[in-house]
Amino acid sequence: MINSETISAISTATGEAGIGIVRMSGENSIKIANEIFRPMGKSTLIEAENRKLTYGHIYDGDKLLDEVLIVKMLAPKTYTREDIVEIYCHGGIISVRNILKLTIEKGARLAEAGEFTKRAFLNGRLDLTQAEAVIDLIKSKSEVSYDMSIKQLEGSLSGKINEIRNEVMSMAALIVANIDFPEDEIVEATYKSLEKDAKNVIKSLNELIDNSSRGKLLRDGINTVILGKPNVGKSSLLNSLLRDERAIVTDIPGTTRDVITDFVNLDGILLKITDTAGIRETHDEVERIGVSRAKEAINDSDLIIAIFDGSKSFTEEDREIISLIENRKSIILLNKADLERKVSDSEIKELLGDKKYFDVSILSGKEIKTIEDEIKEMFFKGEIKESSDVYVNNLRHITALKEAKSAMDEVLVDIEQEMFLDLLEVNLEVALASLGEITGDTTTEDVLDKVFSEFCIGK
Q: What are the residue boundaries of the TrmE-type G domain, all occurrences included (predicted)?
């Protein structure tokens, strides 16, 4: 156990609800709950059956606070591997806060953000990748990201990392054995074996790193920016994708003067869509700031949907937009296809090169499916699904994997040059430490604080 303190927190969202939950964990959680709980039957909470709900009331002295159900869960078979008590009271701000306050007055301490899960990690119930999967699970906004979080919580990523670590440890053990018992024939065979093993480890690391871009998209969604001059149909496209009148649409250029962000669920994957102010020269200070923010949004985007008015000739502002998206993933739409097109194919070819474009009439809404299919094709080869592959979607994990891969690259170079075996051991230790940072086998208090600070209090 990490310490003997008992922690307490509200584990349900603030606001009106059918049920609110106050949770305690620690060696005194049952004792504290027993002092404030009066069961309807004769037995006390201490005598109550493990993992069985008991009906009764919470009292602060002689004052009734609420009618509740309460359950005790005895260590070590609990979420934190400590004794846990959960009090199910009526939902609402006053009831849960009064009960929380009472548990603290009786000796518990207010839990820090993520402290229940942090204790689960420190007490060996979860590794760090599984702990991080808990917060991903809570924050999931699509079925695909939810399913991926469930797999990570079950240990899919940590299993793969431990598999690679075991290979590296086997290499280190072989080196130590040869250092202790050097023989020319054994050393020669050792270099060949180590070279094969190093290449296998690097291959596995590369597969995880290569999958990280897809994993990040599956978890966080596609950061999509709608770009174009004023009054080309940007807000109409946003509304069509959302199937809702989210943005104001008028014939007046400059109606959208700031970025508008919303989310679309595209067959289980999240699109974070930003409608920007129209790109143009303007003397309006507010609109000018909006244009500046639109250009800044481009740098953070995974995808740009650039819209041009096909019923009008291209202008310098259109050419500026094309230059902004030159080296970025983009879908180009020539809007207002219901009107006579004023832009020739040759002009389009000259400006866009080999970039694909679509003639559309956004107001009709008929081409929305085409646009969605193009997004799926661009990012997921036409089919969005979470496969059986292990995906890395966390920047901390990706950084550690790249550090491990860099160390293993050095190991392979040293092996090929038949450097002294004890020199190989140094970079192997670096690789092991980097991989251990992912699962939490080798980590620092600062890293743990950073990871668990992203949790809500009560989880």
A: 221-380
pLDDT of 212 over the 90 cut = no
Place of tokens 């679509």: 358
Does the pLDDT of residue 247 top 50, yes or no? no
- Whether residue 221 is annotated as binding a ligand: the answer is no
**236 labelled ligand-binding:** yes
Q: Is 182 annotated as a binding residue?
A: no
At 252, the pLDDT band (50, 70, 90 cuts) reads: very low
**Residue 418 Ramachandran class (φ > 0 left, ψ -120 to 50 alpha, else beta):** left
Residue 29 burial (CB count, 10 A): 27
Rounded distance between C-alpha atoms, residue 39 and residue 69, angstroms = 9
Q: Are residues 101 and 18 both part of a single domain?
A: yes
- What is the pTM for the complete model shown? 0.77
Strands 222-228 and 54-60: unpaired
Q: Is 335 annotated as a binding residue?
A: yes
| Within a domain: 387 | no
Token couple for 194: 């180590």
Domain enclosing residue 255, as ranges: 220-380
Q: Determine, yes or no, domain membership for 81.
A: yes
Highest-confidence segment of 326-335, 398-407, 442-451: 398-407
Structure tokens at 53: 């709900």
Is the pLDDT at 358 greater than 80? The verdict is: yes
Please state whether the peptide bond connecting residue 76 to the residue before it is cis, i.e. omega within 30 degrees of 0. Answer: yes
Residue 86, annotated ligand binder?
yes
Query: Is 256 part of any known ligand binding site?
Result: yes
What residue spans of 259-327 are helical by DSSP H? 285-299, 316-324
| 290 assigned to a ligand binding site | no
Query: Is there a binding annotation on residue 23?
Result: yes
Confirm or deny that 177 is annotated as ligand binding.
no
338 is in an annotated binding site: yes
Q: How many CA atoms does the CB half-sphere of 54 hold within 13 Å?
A: 26
391-411: per-residue pLDDT in tens?
A: 888 889 999 999 999 999 999
Does residue 420 fall inside a structural domain?
yes
Whether 1 maps to a domain, the answer reads no
